[in-house]
């Protein structure tokens, strides 16, 4: 279930579009995938080691709190929580968009599309309110259902492979700039690799299960990403692939006809729904972990009979609903605001990766007697690579987004001061 949570959260809606985005770069994109994958795997190893040393609920928040103290813990929990529920709005919109394959009316009625998207939010909220096992079962089922059509198109596509379609650098662009562009595109495909560490309180033997799930899940997604890109680039001419609005669906239609198109459309809907389920689980547990440490209002740790932090789950979904209403009712301006918030949320999600890379070394130093000098060699290496990877991702977000991300984090300072006041009043 933990592995399915990692794979399900990483493989959301983006993978269905990435081959088209990478098509103009040809074989250079393979180098981009490999370099990005190395950074992602190093981060997976960072989270694996952290979860083995410190198997606590809250994932990135818990590690940063342990490594850098109350303020850094609050700061990251604040930004990460906002990024989680705002990102869920994007997944609900993407799922509704893919449902147009089966229900074309959704493409012509904004109110109906909005109602369906909001309905999806509250369906996954209900699933997660029933406990971690309920959401875990959904994660396993949806991950299998999404992987089957993707894997089928990928592997059967190799039987239709035409080597002349795959050029190393089809437009003869400068290698370094092409490599930089492909890395920027592929970086976003690995968001979610930390997912297994968040619900640690509900995991059996978390010190063993979470590291294995994190590494295995990241490797599975990496293999599928690279193979699918190669397969589709060999199956379709570069210009055709680059112009495709649904590359996997078009590839399936090319090989199998209309029923293949419908199969991949179904896989895309399930993919978005599965990712939405997994990220909804996280939007409840991150603020709950901070509340348990007295850094968020205590109500965020309020749990129902199934042990779910129900207040944080419902509040987060209510905020997503408001964001969705703004998107579907605001016209062009509303759409632009929505897209900006989602881009901001994506960039904010990357900040905990940089902090966690250094938190691993900080926690090991604090527990100095438990580790010999040679114990720092491997963690120091992949923590360093993970830190550079995270900085690169933030740089790729653009100066405006980084600036607004900083303002978003600074907006949390009054909340932190208020919580300090409440803690001192209790003491």
UniProtKB/TrEMBL annotation:
Localization, UniProt: Cell membrane
Membrane protein topology class: Multi-pass membrane protein
InterPro entries: AA/rel_permease1, APC_superfamily
Membrane-spanning segments: 30-50, 101-124, 136-162, 174-193, 214-236, 259-282, 303-325, 337-364, 376-395, 401-418
Lineage: Bacteria, Pseudomonadati, Pseudomonadota, Betaproteobacteria, Neisseriales
Primary localization: membrane
Protein name (database record): Arginine/agmatine antiporter
Species of provenance: Chromobacterium piscinae
Key word Lipid metabolism present: no
Annotated function: Major component of the acid-resistance (AR) system allowing enteric pathogens to survive the acidic environment in the stomach. Exchanges extracellular arginine for its intracellular decarboxylation product agmatine (Agm) thereby expelling intracellular protons. Probably undergoes several conformational states in order to translocate the substrate across the membrane; keeps the substrate accessible to only 1 side of the membrane at a time by opening and closing 3 membrane-internal gates.
Family assignment from sequence similarity: Belongs to the amino acid-polyamine-organocation (APC) superfamily. Basic amino acid/polyamine antiporter (APA) (TC 2.A.3.2) family.
Keywords noted in UniProt: Cell membrane, Membrane, Transmembrane, Transmembrane helix
Keyword Methyltransferase applies: no
């Amino acid at each position: 279930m933990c592995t399915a949570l990692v794979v399900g959260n990483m493989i959301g809606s983006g993978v269905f579009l990435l081959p088209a985005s990478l098509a103009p770069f040809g074989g250079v994109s393979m180098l981009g995938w490999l370099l990005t994958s190395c950074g992602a795997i190093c981060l997976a190893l960072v989270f694996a080691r952290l979860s083995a040393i410190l198997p606590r609920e809250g994932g990135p928040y818990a590690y940063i709190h342990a490594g850098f103290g109350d303020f850094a813990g609050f700061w990251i929990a604040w930004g990460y929580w906002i990024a989680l529920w705002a990102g869920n709005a994007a997944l609900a919109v993407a799922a509704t968009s893919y449902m147009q394959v089966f229900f074309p009316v959704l493409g012509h009625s904004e109110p109906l599309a909005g109602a369906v998207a909001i309905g999806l939010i509250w369906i996954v909220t209900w699933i997660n309110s029933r406990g971690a096992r309920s959401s875990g079962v959904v994660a396993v089922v949806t991950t299998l259902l999404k992987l089957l059509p993707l894997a089928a198109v990928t592997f059967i596509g190799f039987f239709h492979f035409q080597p002349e379609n795959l050029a190393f650098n089809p437009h003869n662009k400068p290698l370094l700039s092409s490599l930089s562009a492909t890395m920027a595109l592929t970086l976003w495909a690995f968001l979610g690799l930390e997912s297994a560490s968040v619900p640690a309180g509900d995991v059996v033997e978390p010190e063993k299960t979470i590291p294995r799930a994190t590494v295995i899940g990241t490797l599975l997604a990496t293999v599928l990403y690279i193979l699918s890109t190669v397969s589709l680039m060999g199956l379709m001419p570069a210009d055709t692939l680059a112009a495709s609005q649904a590359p996997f669906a078009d590839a399936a239609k090319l090989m199998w006809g209309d029923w293949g198109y419908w199969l991949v459309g179904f896989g895309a809907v399930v993919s978005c729904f599965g990712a939405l389920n997994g990220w909804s689980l996280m939007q409840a547990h991150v603020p709950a972990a901070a509340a348990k440490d007295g850094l968020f209002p205590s109500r965020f740790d309020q749990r129902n009979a199934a042990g779910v932090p129900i207040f944080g789950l419902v509040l987060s979904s209510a905020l997503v609903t408001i964001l969705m209403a703004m998107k579907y009712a605001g016209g062009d301006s509303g759409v632009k605001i929505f897209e900006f918030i989602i881009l901001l949320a994506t960039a904010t999600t990357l900040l905990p990766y940089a902090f966690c890379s250094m938190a691993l070394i900080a926690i090991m130093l604090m527990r100095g007697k438990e580790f010999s000098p040679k114990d720092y060699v491997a963690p120091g290496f992949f923590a360093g690579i993970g830190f550079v990877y995270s900085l690169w991702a933030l740089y790729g977000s653009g100066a405006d987004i980084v600036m607004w991300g900083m303002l978003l984090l600074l907006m949390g300072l009054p909340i932190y001061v208020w919580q300090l006041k409440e803690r001192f009043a209790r003491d």
